[in-house]
Design brief:
4-stranded antiparallel sheet; 2 domains; Rossmann fold; alpha/beta; 5-stranded parallel sheet; 8 helices; single chain
Amino acid sequence: MNILIVEDDKSTAEFIGAGFRQAGYAVSIAQSGHEGYFKAKNESYDLAIIDVMLPGMSGFEIIKRLRQEHVMLPIIILSARNEEENKVHGLECGADDYQTKPFSLTELLARANAQIRRASAVADPVELQIADLKMDLVSRKVFRGDQKILLQPLEFQLLEFLMRNKGRVVSRTTIMEHVWEYNFDPHTNVVDSRICHLRDKIDKNFEPKLLKTIRGFGYVMEEP
């Protein structure tokens, strides 16, 4: 599981991050509103914990913009303000839960787990499709138009992850955490190598090209 923490207080962010890492989560930290918004919009997370008072853009504004752009990851607001109107405003912006400071890390973990369970309870699709690329998640077959694409198990997992994140740029680190489920040296080329093999199978002899490299950021599957 991959958690985004948007918190400008370094000690608070590190405290939360250490607790979630100890519980088995991969953690990414953003310390400004703009950085948090960019990460939440363009990378893949299972949950975001967002402080309200942030430099550049408030937590409320981050959530409102994400929901307007149909980014539906679970979000918990973290705030020192416990007035009812602030809680109501946060939930109306699109947050799923509201945790006031000071807080118990055990309670925050429990709230996070509950939100992730609730989100994962939504029925999974049985088929993914981008343009004429189709993936049947039941039979585990992939077609580009009428042509069957033979994939190795890891290639299937990689393609599934990219297709589930259609239109979103996913970083190499995020791919490692979600597809391989453990961390490599960040300078390794294992992701680039697998992407290259996958691109040869699903894009090389077809139009339009669907798997794109976003230099300096990662990869994205999208229709032209």
